[in-house]
Write the structure tokens for this entry.
Amino acid sequence: MKLILKAAASAIALAVSSGLHADVLPDSQAQSAWFTDAQSKIAQKLEVNSKFKAKNVILFVGDGMGVSTLTASRILKGQMAGEMGEEGYLAFEEFPYTALVKTYNVDAQTPDSAGTMTAMMSGLKTDVGVIGVDEDIERGDCSTVAGNEVITALELAEIKGLSTGIISTARITHATPAATYAKSADRNWEDVSDMPEAAVTADCKDIADQLVNFEYYLEDRYTGIDVDGIEVAFGGGRRHFLPRDAAFNSPDAVSSVEGDRTDSRDLTAEWQDMYENGVYIYDQAGFDAIDPASTERVFGLFNESHMQYEADRANDVAGEPSVADMTTKAIDILDNNEKGFFLMVESGRIDHGHHAGSAYNALTDTLAFEAAVKAAYENTNPEDTLILVTADHSHVFTIAGYPKRGNPILGKVVNVGSDEPAMAADNMPYTTLGYTNGLGFQDLGNETDADAIYAYAANTGRMDITNVDTEASGYHQEALIPLGSETHAGEDISLHASGPGSQLVQGVVEQNVVFHLINQALDLVEE
């Protein structure tokens, strides 16, 4: 312990001498508190974790949550609390182990969520746009699926007898959650209406069908196994489970016809018939009524399409639970199984905020995601639960210019020693945050739904934002290259880990290593 504290003191002394000046530590009391906190963090990182096996594993995926998103989010978090911002941490950034993760797909330098999540779930990298299958697949060709399916960590957990859960703020049939349970030649085959006739005729199954009939399809694929099905599924995407008939609309339906299915099947009813002790819910009231101690399984579809952005959640017709609340409820249900559980939690709308060119929505959803990770950590035992926090890919999202310390992260660049926005060579101010491509600038005032920008044409290039409030929720950053949607980026993302087996999270790794970390902790393949 003395060696740890000595190392901590040396590291802190070096940090202070390297640039942590009086503006960071304004008085002796603050310096003492900072020193003690820094000591604790360094001691934690130096402490050896001798445990490798876990009872539970929770995988958190911040969709599109690249390193620049983490940096900007932690600054925003601090500034929302009245601090300068740069000196803080997101909760999971304080986990003791961290690695960088390479995200390319087999056929793509810059990846998509289908290929990246399949890699994390199966241990095998694959192509862009396909779900739960290897690279020998031909995207869109149903006939190439058979024989190329991969088994996932969630499926292996089911076979081992663990409880399993899936949470997403996107549609539960979207690429990231789908990669935990489905096998599809195309990520877009979310329901039968999305599939070409040839695929339907060839008896390929849509993704929603595969979720509802997960137990049957898994037992059919592997002879001699007996599983009891996914215990918790929370997310959006109700339209893919309901027939295209207004008679099946949910009470909070926004569209005149909520369902998309063209095969007349009501998969929510099929699920309820299959699991008599299961509870199907669609709104906040139903969610609140769930008693985790007595609930065997629950299926919650809280929106026709994706769930609301965190900033827009209060505007939902019937109310939606937060990702933190869904995580807590899921853990309380899953830990009824003494054997343990595997849970995947995706914050899907970080990605959508970036695609819409809205830093505000992307960052506020990242902070909601952080709250979910914190809730999971506080509601599990770090001695028996491995928590992994990562992303599937990054975005072309930048933090630029030379703003002074504490400058509003959503604001215009104000240089060191100045109180006025800096001017670019075109004699106009510019923001710290920006995008390389996308729809570009829009000033939508207090709008909290980033997707409102899709009603407008691309507006890229430089704009005079002198009199624009760039910190408003409806502000969309400038972009250089006009595209219908901002794109993913190809650089590495981060992986943060806590709990048994977390000490293996080090260095620069391939994305499929995430599966092997889960497997190592739970002994899934051996089972």
Q: What stands out?
A: The chain has 15 helices and 17 strands. The domain at 56-396+493-522 is CATH 3.40.720.10 (Alkaline Phosphatase, subunit A). The CA atoms of residues 117 and 176 lie 6 Å apart.
